[in-house]
Fold this protein.
Amino acid sequence: MRAGGVILTFLALLSLFGPELVSRSPAAQDREGVYQRPSLTGHVLGTDGLGRDVLSRTLHAARFTFLTAFAGVVLAVVLGGVAGAVAGLLGGVGDRLVMRTTELFMALPSLYLILGLRNLFPDSIGPFEAGLVVVVSLAAVGWSGVARLVRGQVLSIREEAYIAAARAAGASRFRVLSVHVVGILRPFLLLQLGLHIPYFLLGEVTLSFLGLGLAEPAPSFGNMLSSAGANASLLGSRWWTWVPPASLLTVAVLGSNLWIETLRARYIGNRGYLGGYLGPPEGLESWAARASRFWSSSKWGSKHLRQRAS
Amino acid sequence: MGRVVLARLSSAVPLLVLTTLLSFLLVHWAPGSFLDQLRFQPGIPESVIDRMEERYGLDRPWHVQYSSWLFAVARGDFGLSLRFQRPVAELLKESVPRTLVLAAFALVFCTLAGTVLGLLSVRKLEGTWDRLACRAALTLISVHPVILAILGLSFAAWTGSLPLGGGSSLEASALPWWGRGADYLRHLILPETVLILVMLPGFFLQARGVMAEVLPSPFVAAGRARGLSERTLVLRHLLPAALAPLVSYMSSSLARLLNGAFLVEVVTGWPGMGRLALVALRERDSFLLLGTLVVAGVILFLGNLVADLLLAEVDPRIRLEEAST
């Protein structure tokens, strides 16, 4: 099923260009026209409690959420990948140190850990700092799981004959790590990247929902939902204030979950989470797989493959 | 069994102490404290705040504060909540059981219901029910818990039959014990339903995946060939084989369960530990925040311990490993 990739691409384009296409500012207030219903002539998705355009706010919120979630995932996978690879290759004290640290980070439920981390920053911060805080918090929660998985992989790769061959041929430790270990783990790391995307999307929204991420007046899915949810009895009659952000977020998470199934089918085989419910892996080729094939047919990649074979 | 518990405890106690240290430092390094906020209020003289600081020992170096706090916690004294002006232990005693009830019931229900739904699914893989259930689960898992909670709230507001938030009615204390119990349950329905909806799809997909993996094993075919009824085959052969991975999924979802309970509490107003932690963070109430962090860590730790023991119980191979080492 390619729906996941299509949805993600569409949403990425939407969050890149969408905010530029709407002329109304997400922060411009109109005290005369609060809670306007959606209309084709005025505000397409209506206005919120301060008379701000919901469409513009939703699109700007999407940009912030997707950007921070993606940056968070990349940071978490890079940190976890480096920590795990170093731990697996070094062994001994370094290994134990890294593993105990990951356990420490997993000893608290992630939301409580994030609460503790958020405590280190001032209460009200600007949009850029908020983005930074969100990315760092998400990465701080996510890196430990990646590190443990990568370490496990590295431990088994370390025993492969081609690693010993590379060492014997005089390759430095750094070269072994970067070319022979991380090179082999590329698809695995990519899968980890994909696997974390839905959680990080949800995580970013959680943070701003709790008032710990991007704060008003800047728009975010979380604070749009929280201001709508503040008065439960009015949710039904003012649906347009929370349905657009809620549905866009749900579609994004669904898209990344579908994309994961594609990745999983490609890299793990037909037995994953859904047991191949979404179709057989034959004929499926994600851009990741294509990129990987392109790499191995390139000059650098083929050299890498030759070294692997020898 | 006893030896397994002892071994786990002895290896985990240092980790638990480190967790408390991490929590303490996170809270200690915060910019601005409750007392700093008081300093901005012109009505309170500086000397009063200084006296408070001295009384709570907040003027001492951090390692002295940490060790005295740790020994106090070991005796069950979590310090004083500056915001509520009550002992933190008292506040925790009120809120933690509520979170535990919410989470434990959801865990038990999702494990059972997820397994049953998974069984229904693997009876005919790729059948109509299976496809439908998988689609529904994948969609449900993609909805943010907060959105589910908001939908639940608006549904409750629409029907008007369930209380919107809170843990008890105002007149509850005047009721006899069964009335109080019914009142408690009535308030629990909404958060509990939302939490179950958050957790169930994961449990279902996991149960289905595990059993779909066991299904092609030779022993299932052999059982069929011996003429076992489907009932016996499923209950006596399929389920035991799938039990160990299910239990380990249970233990790995404990943290997600506590996170989910946190969010559900915040939105639906169930007065549990998550709400308390959020209030503590917003008010910079350090001892309260610290107390919730530590209790969350302890709950997770104990939950994992129980799950490990369960796993040793259902999977003989793990028991043998423990015995041989």
Remarks:
- Chain A touches chain B through 50 residues (CB under 8 Å).
